[in-house]
Amino acid sequence: MRKYDAEQIIEILKSLNRFSGLDTETLQSIASYAQVREYRHKECIVKEGEFDSRFYFLLSGIAAVIKGGEVLVTFQRKGELFGEMAIIFGEMGTIEESTRSATIMAAVSETKCLSIDASLFDSLKADAKDRILAAVYGAFSYHLATKIRSMSEEIVGLRKEIKALKSLGNK
Asked: Domain residues for 106?
């Protein structure tokens, strides 16, 4: 497995929209808590029920979210974020809430992710912490808004299907 040094991780961070405007010192702080990892087809990235203090950005490949044996969603675009729910709940709730709510698996070989350990936030000076939190929470917010939009569309579709099935049952 290829090992990435701090300069390579900084270049990867710069390639992600949310981090591209950060200064070098801030990027160095993030890079010290970041790892790049490549996963083989069907290799587990995150396992449901386990505790993990990292959140992830997809760099290449496809990552599938699996719950109850079903693929719920796939991440296919560079910069897509996952693993944020355990971090958010970990900051605000209990240990049970901070465990992984689903398994995320590499759906193709050579799926590459950047992970950042959330303990980064505890180690920062106030000014750097504000800049990094703004970038990270901006990414979280965008990602969650995208999820809500997608789920809203799915709910509307399911309601239409239910209505159609009910009308068939009434005939």
From this structure: 6-169
Highest mean pLDDT among 19-23, 57-61, 68-72, 151-155: 57-61
Is 163 within a domain? yes
What dihedral angle (degrees, nearest 10) is formed by the CA atoms of 91, 60, 141, 53? 0
Separation between Cα atoms, residue 95 and residue 80, nearest integer Å: 25
Total number of domains constituting the chain: 1
Report yes or no on whether pTM surpasses 0.85: no
Q: Which residues of 83-115 are buried (b: 16+ CB within 10 A; e: fewer)?
A: bbbbbbbbeeeeeeebbbebbbbbbbeebbbbb
Are 107 and 63 within 8 A, CB to CB?
Answer: yes
For the beta carbon of residue 124, count every other beta carbon within 10 angstroms: 17
The answer to whether position 1 is within a domain reads no
79 burial (CB, 10 Å; 0-12 / 13-18 / 19+) is middle
